[in-house]
Amino acid sequence: MPEHTQQQLVYVVDDDQGMLDSTVWLFESMGLKALPFTNGQTFLDACDPAAAACVLLDVRMPGMGGLAVQDAMRERGIGLPVIFVSAHADVPIVVRAFRGGAVDFIEKPYNEQLLLDSVQRALNQRPGVASVSVPEVQQRLDRLTPREQDIVLPLVQGFSNREIAEQLGVSVKTVDLYRSRVMKRMQADSLPALVGMLVGLGVIDPFTLQPLRDLRVS
């Protein structure tokens, strides 16, 4: 069958059988073909690099975790878009995922529509090409107020709202307010999404999480 007529495929890799079954059912109910795998090695052995596909990959799995699977994909030249899902989306893990080329990172329990939208974007793009352009994200960042920009870096560095409040000398309620505004203005559905944006802009060092440049320098 010619490649352009291939049915779109989602490889779903998750050791939680219940989550795996429900996710596969969701995709198939929307007309997508979904292939389930309970461990990374089995997926790697079965994966077709030429498929019209993307990979939904759990971060924490026994044996080979999601980040190790991502590394193995890169070593094997498998350029399929990867979307990570995890109930433990701490900043270093998120940064490493995006540094490795992930196109999205979704926290569990996830919103079904958010997941479907992310998968559709991944299926419609070429591997390694961001779904939102760098200039567009920079414009969003430039439109933040100075106080909102003060919030961004501590957020993506993993500081809690209370820690940010102490750094800036404001109340936790004020940080909550500005954090909500930042997420809305940046059009970030989650903290992992915001981290991915700033990594993509080259604003933070993905290894140290330290700022690489002024936020307003495009």
Structure description:
This protein is α/β, with parallel strands linked by helices and 218 residues long. 48% of the residues lie in helices and 11% in strands. It is built from ten helices and five strands, in the order E-H-E-H-E-H-E-H-E-H-H-H-H-H-H. The chain has helices at residues 17-29, 40-46, 66-75, 91-99, 112-123, 134-142, 146-156, 161-168, 172-185, 191-201; strands at residues 9-13, 33-37, 53-58, 82-86, 104-107. It has a five-stranded parallel β-sheet, sandwiched between helices. Helix 4 (91-99) crosses helix 10 and helix 7 crosses helix 9. The termini are far apart.
List the helices and strands and how they pair.
Layout: E1 9-13, H1 17-29, E2 33-37, H2 40-46, E3 53-58, H3 66-75, E4 82-86, H4 91-99, E5 104-107, H5 112-123, H6 134-142, H7 146-156, H8 161-168, H9 172-185, H10 191-201
Parallel strand pairs: 1-2, 1-3, 3-4, 4-5
| Discrete helix count | 10
Round the Cα radius of gyration to an integer and report it. 18 Å
The largest pleated sheet is described as:
5 strands, parallel
- The average pLDDT is 85
Compact description:
The chain has 218 residues and is an alpha/beta fold. Helices cover 48% and strands 11% of the residues. The chain has a five-stranded parallel β-sheet, with helices on both faces.
What attributes characterize this protein structure?
single chain, 5-stranded parallel β-sheet, 10 helices, 11% strand
